[in-house]
TrEMBL record:
Pfam families for the chain: Mrr_cat
Protein keywords: Endonuclease, Hydrolase, Nuclease
InterPro entries xref list: Restrct_endonuc_IV_Mrr (IPR007560), tRNA_endonuc-like_dom_sf (IPR011856)
Protein name, per record: Restriction endonuclease
Length: 255
C-alpha cells in the first residue's frame, strides 16, 4: 500500500473507527471498567492513554484520579494472591468504604450462602440532609453479597441464581442452622436490599446479562482492582504497597 493509498484508507474509515472507539470507551465507563485509552480532548484525530493529563493540570483532582488508576494492575495481581477468606475480608472492607457503619463478615463455614452484609444509612447522603431528626434519618438500604475467590474460573448464571436464592431465604428467615450465621441480617418486609456479587475472576456474558436484568451489582477482579485504586487502599503517595494493602484486608477479618 502506497502512502497515498494509506491516507485514503484512513480518511474513509476515520468516522467508523472513531465511533467504535467512543462506543468502547462509553461501555467501559458504564460498566465501571478501566479503559486504557481515551480520545484527545483537543483533537479527535488523536488517541491517548486514559491516565494522560496535560502538565498544566497536574494539580487538579481529575489528574490525581488518573494517577491513582495507574496502580490498577498491581491491585489485580494482589487480589489473586489473597486466600479465599482474605478476599471475603476485602469485600467487607468495600462495604465500609461505601459507608456501611457495621459491615459484617459471616462465619467461614455454614454461612447460608451469604459472605458479607450491612445496613447503609442514607440520611447524610441525601440533598435534603438536616442536622435535626427528619425523614432522611429513616431511609436505609441493606447491602448483602457473596465473594468468590476465583483465578481462572468464570462466574456464570448458576452463581448469580444461587445468591438470589440465598438472600430470599434469609429474608424469609429460613436457614439450615439456628439462625446464628445471619443473626444481624434482619431486613423488614419492605426494606430495599442491594445484591452484590464480587469475584477475583471474570463473569461470563450470560452471567453479566442476568445480573444486569435482575438488578444485581457484580464486580469482577478488574473492577474491584479499579475500585481499590480509586479509594487509595494500600497507597503511599501514588505508590502501591502490597504489605499495607494486605494489612487493610486483614483488619477486616475481625468483627
Amino acid at each position: 500500500m502506497t502512502g497515498d493509498e494509506a491516507d485514503e484508507f484512513a480518511a474513509s474509515h476515520h468516522v467508523a473507527i472513531l465511533s467504535t472507539l467512543k462506543d468502547a470507551i462509553a461501555e467501559s465507563e458504564l460498566r465501571y471498567r478501566f479503559c486504557r485509552i481515551e480520545i484527545n480532548e483537543s483533537s479527535q484525530d488523536f488517541v491517548q492513554g486514559s491516565s494522560f493529563y496535560p502538565a498544566g493540570e497536574a494539580q487538579t483532582e481529575r489528574a490525581r484520579a488518573k494517577r491513582l488508576r495507574l496502580a490498577k494492575d498491581n491491585y489485580a495481581i494482589f487480589l489473586r494472591t489473597l486466600s479465599w477468606r482474605e478476599f471475603e475480608g476485602c469485600c467487607r472492607g468495600i462495604l465500609g468504604i461505601l459507608g456501611v457503619e457495621e459491615p459484617t463478615l459471616t462465619q467461614a463455614s455454614d454461612d447460608q450462602g451469604i459472605d458479607f452484609y450491612g445496613k447503609l444509612a442514607l440520611g447524610n447522603r441525601l440533598d435534603n440532609f438536616s442536622e435535626l431528626p427528619g425523614l432522611d434519618r429513616r431511609l436505609n438500604v441493606w447491602l448483602v453479597g457473596q465473594a468468590k475467590h476465583y483465578d481462572k474460573t468464570r462466574v456464570s448464571t448458576p452463581d448469580i441464581r444461587e445468591l438470589v436464592g440465598s438472600v430470599r431465604l434469609a429474608q424469609s428467615g429460613i436457614a439450615s442452622d439456628d439462625g446464628r450465621a445471619l443473626s444481624g441480617f434482619n431486613p423488614s418486609l419492605l426494606d430495599p436490599v442491594f445484591f452484590l456479587f464480587f469475584t477475583t475472576g471474570t463473569i461470563s456474558r450470560d452471567g453479566e446479562t442476568l445480573a444486569a436484568r435482575s438488578g444485581m451489582i457484580c464486580m469482577d477482579g478488574d473492577q474491584i482492582a479499579t475500585f481499590l485504586a480509586d479509594n487509595e487502599i494500600g497507597l503511599t503517595g501514588d505508590v502501591f504497597e502490597q504489605d499495607a494493602a494486605l494489612a487493610w484486608v486483614r483488619s477486616h477479618l475481625h468483627q
